[in-house]
C-alpha cells in the first residue's frame, strides 16, 4: 500500500510542434456523436478476442465447481461456488436491495473520509511552496506516513468506538498521504519560469499561488486523489471487516460465518468493480477538465 | 517612457571573497535611450542572463543599480516584463487567457481588457487562434503569444532571454523579422540577450559586448544601419567582422 504513494512525476507537457499552417485546434471530442459511437463499438468488437482466455477460465471454473468437486467431495464444493451460482446470488441481492444498501454504506464512508482527506491539498501546497512549512511539518509526516492505516485500527476503536467515525478515520489515513505527497511533488515540479512569468506580468503572491501554483500542480494532485481513493477503498474494506455493521467489508465477513461463499464472492467482485469505476471516473474527468495536461490523458 | 540605465552593476554568487564564490557581473554600466533596441552579446556563462534577471527584478544585485526612468528596479512587475527562451506560456490557459492575464493583474475593467487583448493577438498575427491552447501551437506561434502577452501590459522595458534559440534556423530568421515589425509598430525599450552575432546586428540599435566571466561590458556599439538590414551590405559585414573579433578574443582559456 505504501509503495505506490508516489505516482510517476508528470513532467511539463511536451507535444510535437506542428507547422503553423496546420495548427488547428484538434480534439477528439470535436467529432460528431454518431462517429464517436461507431468508433467505440468498433473498438469494443475488435477487443473481443482478448476475452477468450477469460471465458475459458470461467468455463473451467464452472466445470470444477459443478462436476469435479461434487464427485470427489460434495462438502468441498461449497467452498468454491460456480459462476452460475454467483450470478443467481448476485441477481437476488440486487433485487432485494441488499447489495445496494451495503454499497451505499461503503461509498458514504469513502466520500466522508475524502472530504477530510482533501485537507491534504492545501497543506501540500503550503509545504511545497514555503520551505519553512515543509521543514517544520515534514518530520511529522515522515513518522506517520509509513504506519499502515490498518495499524491504526486498535487505537481508533478505542478513540471512536465501533462505527462510522472509526471506519472513516482509517479510510482518511489511507487517502491523506498519497494526496499530500503528490500535491507536494506537483508544486515542487512547477516550471519556475511560469512563476517568474506570472510575477513579471504583475501578479501578486496570492494570485501566483492560486492561478499558477494550484493550477500547475492540479494534474499531480488529481493523480494523488486517484491513488488516495484507491488506497482508501482498500483500507475501507479492512476497516469494515473489523468494526462495522454495514458495508461491503461487513457483508463478506458476515457471510463467512454462514458459509455463504457465493455471497462472499459477489461482495468481493462488487468491491473490485467499484474500485475500478472510481479510478476510471477520475481519469475520464481529469481528461475532460484538464485537456492541456497530456501527461495525465494517457 | 523607458530610459534604461545600468550603473556599476555587480553580482557575486555565494559569500563575497569566499573561495567558492562566483562573480557573474563586475561593474557593468551602460545606458539605453527610450524606445531603443539593445542587444547584449556574449558567450554562455558571461553573466548576460544574470544581468537580465536583475533587470527583471528576479534577482538582487550585489552592488550597483538598474534604473528605468531613474526609478530603481527592485521586484518583478509589469513595468519590466520578460520574454523567456522556453516561452513560459501558461499551459492551462488559451492564447486569449495567456495574453489577458497581465491585464487582469493590472486590474483593468473587462471591456478594456478585451479590446487590448484582441489588438495584440492581431498585432502578432494570431487572428483566429484566441481559443487555442499552447500545446496545439508550433514553437514560432508560441513565441508570438509570449510577445503579445508581454506587450499587452505596456511595459516600459521589455526583456528577452534568447527568445529564438529554440526555433529552427528558418523560423528564427522569420521571427526576427516579425519582432522588428512588431517593435516598429509598438516602440518599446528592449533588451535582448543573445549569443548570435547576426541576431544582434539584425535587430539592434546598440550592442553591448560582454567579456567572459566575470562579465563586464567590453565594448558598447551603436548600430546606425538602415532597416531592414541587408546581410550582404558592406557596413553590415564590417560590423560583423568587428564583433566576431571581439567575441573571438573571449574564447579559449585565460
What are the main properties of this structure?
heterodimer; A: about 300 residues; mainly alpha; MetI-like fold; 2 domains; about 70% helix; disordered N terminus; B: about 250 residues; alpha/beta; Rossmann fold; four-stranded antiparallel beta sheet; 7 helices; 10 strands
Identify the CATH architecture of the largest domain in chain B.
Answer: 3-Layer(aba) Sandwich
- Strand numbers in spatial order across the main sheet of chain B: 6-7-8-3-9-10
Shape of chain B: globular
How many angstroms separate the termini of chain B? 41 Å
What structural class do the secondary elements of chain A suggest?
Answer: mainly alpha
CATH topology of the largest domain in chain B: Rossmann fold
Radius of gyration of chain A: 24 Å
- Morphology call of chain A: globular
**Which fold name corresponds to the CATH topology of the largest domain in chain A?**
MetI-like fold
- Major beta sheet of chain B, specifics? 6 strands, mixed
Oligomer: heterodimer
Rg from alpha-carbon coordinates of chain B: 18 Å
Mean pLDDT of chain B: 89
How many DSSP E strands of chain A? Answer: 0
SSE string of chain A, helix = H, strand = E? HHHHHHHHHHHH
Report the uncertain regions of chain B.
Answer: none
The CATH architecture category of the largest domain in chain A equals Orthogonal Bundle
Encode the helix/strand succession of chain B as letters.
EEEHEEEHHHEHEHEEH
Amino acid at each position: 500500500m505504501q509503495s505506490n504513494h508516489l505516482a510517476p512525476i508528470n513532467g511539463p507537457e511536451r507535444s510535437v510542434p506542428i507547422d503553423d499552417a496546420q495548427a488547428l485546434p484538434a480534439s477528439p471530442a470535436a467529432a460528431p456523436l454518431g462517429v464517436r459511437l461507431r468508433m467505440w463499438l468498433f473498438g469494443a468488437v475488435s477487443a473481443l478476442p482478448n476475452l477468450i482466455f477469460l471465458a475459458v477460465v470461467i468455463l473451467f471454473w464452472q466445470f470444477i465447481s459443478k462436476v469435479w468437486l461434487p464427485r470427489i467431495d460434495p462438502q468441498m464444493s461449497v467452498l468454491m461456488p460456480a459462476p452460475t451460482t454467483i450470478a443467481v446470488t448476485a441477481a437476488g441481492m440486487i433485487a432485494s436491495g441488499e447489495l445496494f444498501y451495503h454499497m451505499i454504506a461503503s461509498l458514504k464512508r469513502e466520500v466522508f473520509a475524502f472530504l477530510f482527506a482533501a485537507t491534504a491539498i492545501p497543506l501540500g501546497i503550503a509545504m511545497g511552496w514555503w520551505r519553512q512549512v515543509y521543514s517544520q511539518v515534514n518530520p511529522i509526516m515522515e513518522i506517520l506516513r509509513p504506519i499502515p492505516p490498518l495499524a491504526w485500527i486498535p487505537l481508533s476503536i478505542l478513540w471512536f468506538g465501533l462505527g462510522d467515525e472509526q471506519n472513516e478515520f482509517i479510510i482518511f489515513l489511507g487517502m491523506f498521504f498519497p494526496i499530500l505527497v503528490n500535491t507536494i511533488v506537483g508544486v515542487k515540479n512547477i516550471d519556475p519560469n511560469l512563476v517568474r512569468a506570472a510575477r513579471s506580468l504583475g501578479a501578486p503572491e496570492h494570485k501566483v499561488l492560486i492561478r499558477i501554483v494550484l493550477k500547475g500542480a492540479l494534474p499531480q494532485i488529481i493523480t494523488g486523489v486517484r491513488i488516495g481513493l484507491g488506497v482508501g477503498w482498500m483500507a475501507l474494506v479492512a476497516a469494515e471487516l473489523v468494526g462495522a455493521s454495514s458495508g461491503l467489508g461487513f457483508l463478506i465477513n458476515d457471510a463467512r460465518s454462514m458459509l455463504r461463499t457465493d455471497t462472499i464472492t459477489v461482495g468481493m467482485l462488487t468491491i473490485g468493480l467499484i474500485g475500478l469505476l472510481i479510478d476510471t471516473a477520475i481519469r475520464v474527468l481529469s481528461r475532460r477538465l484538464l485537456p492541456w495536461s497530456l501527461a495525465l490523458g494517457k | 517612457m523607458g530610459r534604461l540605465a545600468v550603473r556599476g552593476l555587480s553580482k557575486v554568487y555565494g559569500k563575497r571573497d569566499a573561495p567558492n564564490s562566483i562573480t557573474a557581473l563586475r561593474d557593468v554600466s551602460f545606458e539605453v535611450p527610450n524606445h531603443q533596441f539593445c542587444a547584449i552579446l556574449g558567450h554562455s556563462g558571461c553573466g548576460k542572463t544574470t544581468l537580465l534577471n536583475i533587470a527583471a527584478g528576479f534577482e538582487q544585485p550585489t552592488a550597483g543599480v538598474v534604473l528605468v526612468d531613474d526609478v530603481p528596479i527592485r521586484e518583478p512587475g509589469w513595468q519590466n516584463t520578460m520574454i523567456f527562451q522556453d516561452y513560459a506560456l501558461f499551459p492551462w490557459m488559451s492564447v486569449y487567457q495567456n495574453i489577458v492575464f497581465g491585464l487582469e493583474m493590472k486590474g483593468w475593467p473587462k471591456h478594456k481588457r478585451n479590446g487590448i487583448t484582441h489588438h495584440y493577438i492581431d498585432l502578432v498575427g494570431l487572428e483566429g487562434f484566441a481559443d487555442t491552447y499552447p500545446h496545439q501551437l508550433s514553437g514560432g506561434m508560441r513565441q508570438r503569444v509570449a510577445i503579445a502577452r508581454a506587450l499587452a501590459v505596456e511595459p516600459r522595458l521589455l526583456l528577452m532571454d534568447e527568445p529564438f534559440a529554440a526555433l529552427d534556423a528558418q523560423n528564427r530568421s522569420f521571427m526576427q523579422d516579425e519582432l522588428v515589425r512588431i517593435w516598429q509598430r509598438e516602440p518599446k525599450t528592449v533588451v535582448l540577450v543573445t549569443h548570435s552575432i547576426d541576431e544582434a546586428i539584425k535587430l539592434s540599435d546598440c550592442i553591448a559586448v560582454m567579456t567572459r566571466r566575470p562579465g563586464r561590458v567590453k565594448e558598447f556599439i551603436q548600430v546606425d544601419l538602415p532597416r531592414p538590414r541587408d546581410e550582404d551590405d558592406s557596413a553590415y559585414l564590417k560590423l560583423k567582422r568587428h564583433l566576431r573579433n571581439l567575441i573571438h578574443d573571449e574564447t579559449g582559456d585565460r
